[in-house]
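Appendix B.2, paired examples.
Example (i):
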Amino acid sequence: MLKLLRMELEGKARNIVRRRKDNIMMNDKQRVQVYNILLTPIEFFSEKYKESNVYPDYIIEETNIFIDKNVIKSTQSYYPYYPDSSKKRYPFSPDCDMSDFSCGFYEIIYKDILIGQNIVDEDGNFTNKIFAGDTMNTGIISKHGRKSKLSTHKRHCLANFWILPMWIGRDWSKNPHPEHSKTRNNCNDYIELYLEYVKDNWDVLQKDENVGEYFLKFKNFNDFMDKHYISDNVKSEKIQEQIDFIKDRAKAISKSKHAEELWEYFFENGLIGYKETYLEPDEYPLNKEIHPYAYECPKCNRTIANDENYSIPDMCDECSKKN
């Protein structure tokens, strides 16, 4: 049953907000929404994590994804917490780029790579260390070794996340296969340096017994770039260059073949509210100077303000709700 979440009267314009899944073609309004969510900051969230005094041996909590004050909060439900801090199920700590929300994102944009595999299985297990979430840009290191971090609100977002073999992106002291680690090859999280490393060592990486399975998913280096939605002109040695890279990647993904499924994923998790402004009958005939991009719905003949100048859909929001 479709649910009307909110109806507000503002002067003579009525705003209708709803959350539902539409079987309609993507329009530029939805692509803008996808773009904005890709850049929205993400924070790790766990109620169980806060209740450390009541842990059993370990606990896995239910998935919880929501938006609060323009920040997306997400659990990492497959990561169990032990009362004994020396115990860990995985050799990494909970992180935004491996959160439940991020894993769902990877399973959409990397369908051609995963080919039916999941990042996390139905039993809540992290299934394959070849496909682990990783952050592309985190900041810059000065000549004196000081790190200037990209702010968390800039770097912790889907547009800055991708998947790599765990041994490459999530290095740790007991890494069993450190030879291609970003950190140990002095690439750190400079995406520009790491891409140069991958390009120069492409044949070696494809033949490597530990990471070759991942790199064989790509026909060549150009295919690697395309499937990760990375443009040819990559710069990352300055903070602003990293910010520009993240925005460019968000734009590329929002225009991709996966944009519609991403929109549905965001919508179903309550991250997108659909809003249109209907002009009341006593405002007809329409004043084009006030609402120059307004259009009339062919189904109900009502007029939608469309002040944002989005492309015109087949029918208005209210009619698509009933359709």
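Example (ii):
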Amino acid sequence: MDNNLLSSIKIKVLSQLNKIELNNNEIIIYNHIINNINFNNYKSVSTNKLSDVIAHIISEKILSSRHKIYSNESFIPNSKKNNINKNSDIKEMDNHTRLKSVIGNVAENTSSKYISSFIQTDNKNSDLNEDVNVDIDTNINSLFNNISLNKLCYKYNPSSLYIHQYVVLDSNYRDVSQDKSNTVSKFVWNYSANNNIVNGSFFSNIELTNIVGINLYQPIIPYLASMDTDAKRVSILIEELSAQSFISSNGRHSHFILRPSYTTATTSVELNTEDNYDHTLWFNEPFIKLDKMTITFGNPDTVLSFTVGAFDRFIIEMEFILLKQ
């Protein structure tokens, strides 16, 4: 076919396809398809009508692919796409963004080995006959690994799945059965579903399950001279959550390492949380359930022991960030 005639047909096809408002990704796919057409298969079609026929076939394939993409609510990218805002609501994603999230990165690479993964062609004819099938769904598994919509939200808009629970640990209501004869190094509280707090317990409105983060509010704890080391820090550990924690050079685990603010002639010391990046410790994997809390303090590498009955009452306030079921 004459090159001038071929160019003329391509321009007419693209002009007609503009009626369905192709985005950049669809134009790239269009270019790949039309550049691989075997025009000999259309000898029976008059030259004047050829552009109409080809435009009609391409538009049907693209519109069909759009419909399949828009109706699929379960896909998820394997990595973040620049066009998806981390704080946006996935359910309100517009159709153009949905389409780009599926074919965007692939379509931006114009090599045929990427484009062909989205354009399934008949083995005998790699042109636009009726056997050609532009099928995005066949690639959903390879692109999105069958990850659920909840996991999609957790990856791109995690705060939409968070529940915040607030807990108070009062030393006067700890489980004293864990105390030794005259010293205490582990302060223990058990979960209570009843807000009428009894000895040995702490309360929250719901059970602490699927824990993804902890926020510690600035606590005041009993002062010990052994806290005042050259490190000038006090560490706090929740033993039940030690699987995801900081580990010092001597093996001491901790979740928070805070700067004490010493005041002369006082029996308590305030632990400053301002050194923390955002005051919140985030976990890589959610903790399934927390029905007991055992708190230890360190200086920061060595666990501190307090004399029973000789230290001030203290209160620790925590915010637990839970993942919705």
